[in-house]
Amino acid sequence: MNPIDTRQILNWDQVKVHIQPNLCIECQLVPQQPLQCYRCQKSLCQTCHADLKQKSRGPKIFCQKCKALNYFNPANNAIYQSYRDMVIGCVNRRYGCKVTLDYKKYQKHVEECEFQRIPCPSPGCFVTTLKRAKGDHLQVCEYVIETCQYCNKQFNRKSMAYHQEKCNGKDVQQIDLASLKSDFLRLRSKLDAAISQFEQSAEIAMLEQKVIKQQLEIQQLKNNINQ
Question: What are the start-end ranges of the zinc fingers (TRAF-type) (predicted)?
Answer without folding.
Answer: 109-160
